[in-house]
Design goal:
Distance between the termini: 48 Å
CATH architecture of one domain: Sandwich
Radius of gyration: 27 Å
Bound molecules: beta-D-mannopyranose
């Protein structure tokens, strides 16, 4: 067991490393050629590579994030590309029973051939593709060819062949939706070998997967399950051992049949140190090694880092509807955080150092949760290692968003294999909190009028809905339940569209009346759901970011480069509307000040929302604004821009998300003390009101006694009279909560 320490980079290196002796691995990352045959392009590349990145590296295209270049680059995804490599294999590898060629990720449609023999067609970015190639291998000069047909045309043909018509073309392809263009993303459909390629050779048997989950945990005992996928060429009596600190800790003899089999073994840990989300406790991690043996002979081994933690969603009926909150290790958790989108448009540019910087900024702003939004990609192990060490509980969507999907057997089988792989890959991470079917699919089906706009007949509609139910209500929950069995599954985020009253009384809600519905920020005060998993307002990124993308061109609200980096049709106008509405007397002297005002406006709006959510605890038990980060330099709802610059909102979160929040209820001028601390408070609340010149108009102290995790309203005698008599534009209210000599929270309100 070890407590997670500040040496995060080291930690990433450690947890990512999985020793697999005596399985032999050879990387096939070098010596590839990327060719676009009609263009006379033949580039030496190393893998991972996507075409857009490799063309840029070779100086053949401009930087896809700078200037106004999107249109110029769209041809890339509708051009055929071929990746080829020649490689030798050593004797040690060839002597094994099985030699598998493994692609950890192919994006997306591709046909793979080895030494002139076709191996398979790939059609899912989110799966690994592997096959035994031993019979085809030669000691020298093997030729591996991965042929990518025109992506756009392939997708279009599939889309047009699908009856009834689906809302979005990307629905037919298991590939990151956001790359097809989003309201913050250009249409950069990556093509290529976006993850490592390798050879893996073994004899007798190997561990295809090994992971550990927590079934039950208390201070005195934890019940865990070791899950293994054991693949073997011949059955036999085998043994799986768990080692800890180099010592044998548990062993499980079992009978292995020929083939690939899922095994589960339960074990207990006495007096466990639990893993907790940020600010609820420590992030203790346990390092295990799992060893597979037959007749005392080592066949394979795996290192597993995990944490001991249980998680549930509690939905209990009450007078208004149903609760919706997370319980971690049996303790109710108020979730504070944001939605996370892929960190890059060019997926091979995602880099763990940047992820660490980004998530550390989130942790410093008191985040305990991120929702990985279903229109992106499943994050890497690095992302989850970082979340494990920082205490960020992850709401993980399956990658489905904003459309109905095909429902033929081949599509559903493909979806099932993808889910199996992802569930098994992520299960050991204590930060994994929840699996969710996807983003705004049920919301779209019930509220966005697809039935009419796509002219579905009654039968079409029924078939599409039945397909939806099979995938999101049967297949995905079955996979989560069977192969994890400890994480809750939630079919859709949100559960009900924001126009429906039930969206505020049960489940999670994406409240978009502000922004999409063009309502003012104050409406957030009324639209408090059980768990607000999306809401937000746009602002411009940091001015330095705009200067980078402008590359010396002059910047103004209607500069071409600004328009090219704003992907929402009404975005520019709506940002301006709220600057006018909330800062009517401000006269920005230049565009830089105007950009800053946009960030002040966004921060002001999110402050209203977050305060409304937190002060409604325990009715409301979560607030995740849209969105933490950007995938390229863009004007968006993010609080941290693409280059890692915090917007005004990100700074303000340090107060708004702090464990204790002090706020003024604008309806009656009384004071909320909202505590997420897991201990009681015995303190003193000081309230003072000053006018513009600094003269004290009011001073009062109130004793504060609160239980752990409580939200309470305090009546401050005379405060409402003072504020009602004063000009609200002219006074400043200072709230301070002290306990003994220490200050638990402060807030200044103007
Ligand atoms: C929500 C998200 C995204 C989108 C955002 C802003 O609906 O799920 O699809 O980018 O709104 O419009």
């Amino acid at each position: 067991m070890r407590k997670s320490v500040v040496l995060f980079s080291l930690l990433i290196a450690l947890t990512a490393c999985t020793h697999r002796q005596p399985v032999v691995e050879r990387s096939l990352s070098d010596g590839w050629t990327l060719a676009g045959d009609t263009l006379d392009i033949h580039l030496p590349v190393s893998v991972p590579s996507v075409v857009q990145q490799s063309l840029y590296d070779a100086g053949l295209i401009p930087h896809p994030y700078l200037g106004v270049v999107e249109e110029e680059l769209l041809w890339i995804s509708d051009h055929p590309w071929i990746y080829t490599t020649h490689f030798d294999v050593d004797k040690e590898l060839l002597e094994k029973d099985v030699v598998e060629l493994v692609f950890e990720g192919i994006d997306t449609y591709a046909s793979v051939a080895l030494n002139g023999q076709k191996l398979f067609d790939a059609d899912n970015q989110f799966r690994t593709w592997k096959t035994d190639v031993k019979p085809l291998l030669k000691p020298t000069d093997n030729l591996l060819v991965v042929d990518f047909p025109r992506y756009d045309s392939t997708q279009l043909a599939l889309y047009e062949a699908h009856q009834p018509r689906l809302p979005e073309k990307y629905a037919v392809t298991r590939k990151a939706p956001y790359q097809h263009g989003w309201d913050w993303a250009p249409k950069y459909k990556n093509v290529g070998l976006w993850k490592p390629v390798l050879l893996q050779a073994w004899s007798t048997a190997r561990l295809e997967n090994a992971y550990i989950v927590t079934n039950e945990a208390s201070e005195s005992q934890a019940k865990l399950t070791l899950h293994l996928d054991v693949e073997s060429t011949s059955g036999g009596d085998m043994i799986a051992e768990i080692h800890q600190d180099g010592k044998l800790f548990q062993s499980f003899p079992f009978q292995q049949e020929n083939g690939n089999h899922h095994k589960m073994f339960s074990f207990n840990i006495q007096d466990p140190k639990l893993w907790w989300p940020n600010e609820m406790g420590d992030q203790t991690l346990y390092d295990f090694e799992v060893v597979l043996k037959e007749n005392g002979k080592l066949l394979d081994s795996r290192k597993i880092t995990t944490g001991i933690k249980t998680v549930q969603i509690v939905q209990e009926p009450d007078e208004k509807g149903f609760s919706f909150y997370f319980k971690v290790n049996g303790v109710p958790m108020y979730a504070k955080g944001a939605n996370y989108v892929p960190e890059e448009m060019i997926e091979t540019w995602i880099n763990p150092d940047n992820t660490l910087k980004l998530l550390r900024m989130a942790q410093e702003a008191h985040f305990n949760m991120l929702r990985v939004w279903g229109g992106g990609i499943y994050p890497s192990d690095d992302f989850f290692n970082i979340c494990d060490s920082l205490g960020i509980l992850v709401w993980e969507d399956f990658m489905y968003a904003g459309t109905m999907y095909p429902y033929d057997e081949a599509f559903l089988e493909n979806a099932k294999v993808e889910a199996l792989e992802q569930v098994k890959r992520l299960a050991s991470h204590p930060s994994l909190g929840l699996w969710c079917g996807g983003n705004e699919i049920s919301e779209g089906y019930y509220n966005w009028g697809w039935q009419q706009s796509l002219e579905w007949s009654e039968e079409d509609d029924q078939a599409i809905k039945a397909g939806y139910d099979r995938l999101f209500e049967t297949i995905l929950p079955m996979v989560v339940d069977t192969y994890d069995g400890t994480r809750p599954y939630w079919p859709s985020s949100p559960s009900k569209g924001w126009g429906r009253p039930e969206s505020l009384t049960q489940g999670d809600v994406h409240y978009w009346g502000v922004w999409w519905g063009e309502q003012p920020y104050e409406v957030y005060r009324e639209k408090v759901g059980r768990f607000n998993s999306e809401y937000g307002y746009q602002s411009y990124p940091d001015y330095s970011t705009l200067q980078k993308i402008a590359q010396g061109e002059s910047l103004s609200i209607d500069a071409k480069v600004i328009a090219a980096h704003q992907k929402h049709a009404r975005g520019t106008r709506q940002i301006d509307d709220f600057i006018q509405r909330y800062y009517p007397t401000a006269q920005p002297k230049d565009f830089e000040e105007y950009v800053y005002l946009s960030q002040l406006s966004q921060a002001y709006g999110m402050e209203i929302a977050i305060e409304a959510h937190r002060t409604a605890k325990p009715y409301n038990m979560g607030t995740l604004y849209w969105q933490l980060n950007d995938a390229w330099p863009v004007t968006s709802w993010s609080s941290i821009d693409y280059y890692g610059n915090p917007k005004v909102l990100q700074e303000r979160l340090k107060v708004l998300y702090a464990p204790v929040l002090l706020s003024l209820d604008r309806r009656d001028y009384q004071v909320f003390v909202t505590s997420d601390l897991l201990r009681n408070i015995d303190g003193m609340l000081k309230v003072s009101v000053k006018d513009k010149e600094g003269n004290h108009l009011f001073d009062q102290e109130v004793k504060v006694e609160m239980n752990a995790n409580q939200n309470k309203k305090y009546y401050v005698e005379g405060l409402s009279e003072c504020l009602l008599n004063a000009d609200p534009q002219q006074v400043c209210v200072k709230l301070e909560l002290t306990e003994g000599d220490s200050v638990l929270a402060t807030r200044e309100l103007f």
